[in-house]
Amino acid sequence: MSDTPGATSPNAADRAEPERPLRILIGADTFAPDVNGAARFAERLAAGLVERGHDVHVVAPAASRKSGSWPEVHEGQEITAHRLHSWRWYPHDWLRFALPWRIRQNSARIIDAVKPDVVHFQSHIIVGRGLSIEAEKRGIRIVGTNHFMPENMLEFTLLPKAWQDWAVGLAWKAAGRTFGRAESVTTPTLKAAQFLEKHTGLENVHAISCGIDAHKYSPNWAPRTENRILFVGRVTGEKQIDVLLRALTLLPDSLDAKVEIVGGGDQKRNLENLAVELGIADRVTFTGYVTDEELREAYHRASVLAMPSIAELQSIVTMEAMASALPVVAANAMALPHLVHDGQNGYLFEPSSPTDLAAKLRTVLEASPDDYNAMKASSLKYIKAHDITRTLDTFESLYRGQRVTDPVTESIPVILPD
C or N: which end of the chain has fewer Cβ atoms within 10 Å? Predict the structure, then answer.
């Protein structure tokens, strides 16, 4: 490996000179304008690093037929984007992918032009594989972050069910090879880190929260005027939004509960048809994709966030809802129990069970004003441990080859409104 960027002699350390800015190359198989957790994290990470004075380059598939390198503005910060020629993956409603057979050539070309101090890839599938191979050849420090579960892509592969376990096994082996080239491997939660270690044989995977800009979200302490259940995310199969719609039919009429689904995806039409079949179409709103400001408004008008997904490695949406002081009812699966503390800032329900989801939603919606506000305050308390400042501090240390302790995720006190 190359010498640690920014390393200093003892005498220099005594003078406490600031460490020089880094040139960072981030690789992602999905990046803005894609709307998903991995893309949002990569965008926020890149913008946050630029704001701290680093020179940030992002390698990602082109969002259209136009490819090349140019400046892009994300989260108010300018990065240099290297957009690779991409093809649309038609089983998916928006996914585009860089060409696998050209990824090593493209990675070598970009690395040699940028000359980064560190390469940080966000996925092992195509871009991360190419960048890690070429960075390793050149002795450049590599950091890898996993946001991906192979099971999430099965519905888009068109593989027969009998072949799916075999395909998942191959995907984990590929992940092990690519992440094995990295000096440091991270994933958003301890549960996800343990999962990655189990399936790849990797050791010492860091659990580092994706983090959010909590100051961009604010609580709404006004008394509720309706019972509005909110879901935000990709409208795809693994999110199990159908479980939420079925749960709505089990709530008492006296609650007059409504569901708002924010996001787009390949299951939107099927879910609209299901709402008609269940007789709840007049109580379910599909808003599609929205702006950041419109999303904050959705959090404000909601009574509770429902997250029925069974494949969340963290869930940025859940963190945004918590920063907006929303109670959360989430599936007791994967990493969601790291965010939802049962009986405090919401409830966990048995995955795939409309009956249990309805029961937990009813508990929140029928809570007294004092109990409801206590859940809201608990969400604010628990989200303080996920501020993106901690995330950026930790990644900066990894980029410089410094030892890190995974960020503390204990709760921090929050002051209730008068």
Answer: C
